[in-house]
Amino acid sequence: LKQLNLHDAASAMIIDGKSQTSYTVVVAPPGIDRIFLHQSGANDTFSQDDLSERALDNVDLFHFGYPPIMERMYINDGQELVDLFRMVKEKGIVTSLDMASVSENRAAGKADWDLILQRVLPYVDFFVPSVEELGFMLDREKYHMWQQRAAAADIISVLDIEQDIKPLADKAQGYGAGTVLIKSGAKGMYCQTASQAERDKIADRLKVNLNNWGNRQHFEYSYKPDRILSGTGAGDTSIAAFLYSVIQGNDFERTLQFSVGTGASCLEGYDALSGLRSFKELEQKIEAGWEKNIF
Description:
Strand order of the largest sheet: 3-4-5-6-7-8
Number of helices: 12
Distance between the termini: 43 Å
Strand content: 5-15%
CATH superfamily of the largest domain: Ribokinase
């Protein structure tokens, strides 16, 4: 709580004497993929009842992450998750949903994620999963084919934008998601938006101009980092940059550049924050010809 207070982020924290605090230990040795040791703790008991009316006062954007590692959010076909997003959406708040990878052999992996997403995505304005997460949830057969094609390599390395990534965005939008932003590892990010009329509703709520956001489909390739120390936080910080750029009213192209630029910057530090650049610094680096990774 002391650390959260330093950033004015502890006001809505709940003290629960019956639960442990959730935590994750990230083991990130150089040159080896990260290993996560996770304790769900109080995350497994979190529900919409823990979100007070006061916490939603004057909120423009609600971002919720990792229902696959929060038991109440995936049991009963995701009813708690659906109720949570419906409640927030009915208040006129812009919504964003991120996911997490789960093991196929665990309870979360056995949940019917296709059905859960059918139920919750009508209440989601920005859906921001990784391609592996979305493939696992919406097309398990194709996901297993990716694993076979990749063998011991990174799944991202064998994926085709048109054949593998875009169909997942199409399906998610068919279920009701507004903008679908699919994190695609070292390659970059694929973004597909809803109609301009739908984007204008978001713009009105956020009091920004999103005039060039309607019916867009684009893959933004990643930038080359100056060095690579750790991937910890690269996905989360890139999503944070994306959402922050949206509420700042930046255009579609610049928002995606800020997003992948933040992900690349994050790789330059061992933790999730020390490598990050401000938008002004990112813009200067982009305008100076920051080199792209083209696969």
